[in-house]
Amino acid sequence: MAATPSNLLTEIGSISFPVTIANLPGGRYNGGMQEYAGEAVVLRREPHGEQDSRVSLFTKRYGKLTAKAKSARKITSKLSPHLEPGLVTDIRLVEKNDMLVTDALKREKLALPPSTLFSLDRVLAEAVPEEELWSMIRNGDFSWRAALGELGWDPREAACAVCAASPEAFHAGRQEFFCSSCAMKMKVGDLIVLG
After folding, report:
1. Does domain 9-137 have CATH number 2.40.50.140?
2. Segments making up each domain of the chain, as ranges
3. d(Cα 139, Cα 132) in Å, to the nearest integer?
């Protein structure tokens, strides 16, 4: 079965529950549909079918959410210019069978590079609020050392997984830290440089 927001499972300790707006704090029930409206940072956007897009959004209240933007790849799309990675957007999501972007209005462009947004999309769990991380991003004082510390991977308490030296990079897929010399032996796209 394909993973959709209505059948994804989020694990907290040993408890699992389906990720839907209805079971998130502040989700609103609207005649068979749940609705969310608020500010979001667009982390990633990728094609989904011939005319649709799938977007990863980071919100203050809900954390990372993934939604479908219908017809966002059409040249006449009203959503397309507001769903580019790096934009802070006022967004409205509705969920009935799938989570859909129904409205979006860009507010500003963040100064974060696309590689940082892509890596954030990889390390953030679906539907887990991260208010401190949200504040770092919105206030312009984002750093990977502080962000990974907030997410539970504190570089100050870590050592290189190979040689136990001071960490300079983090591998998101393996969830391990590496020193600069051990990190040089790995593919660049898999690593987050702590800097």
Report:
1. yes
2. 9-137, 143-193
3. 10
Within the chain, which residues score under 50 in pLDDT? 1-18
- Tens of pLDDT, residue by residue over 27-46, are 665 667 889 999 999 999 99
Q: Distance between CA 57 and CA 128 in Å, rounded?
A: 12
Cα dihedral 111→134→43→96 (10° resolution): -150
Q: Which pLDDT score, from 0 to 100, does residue 26 have?
A: 57
Cβ-count burial of 38 within 10 angstroms (0-12 exposed, 13-18 middle, 19+ buried)? middle
Phi, psi of 168, rounded to the nearest 5 degrees: -125, -10
Number of CB atoms found within 10 A of residue 173's CB: 10
- Identify the pLDDT of residue 82: 97
Check if the beta carbon of residue 53 is closer than 8 Å to that of residue 114.
no
Say if pTM beats, i.e. exceeds, 0.90: no
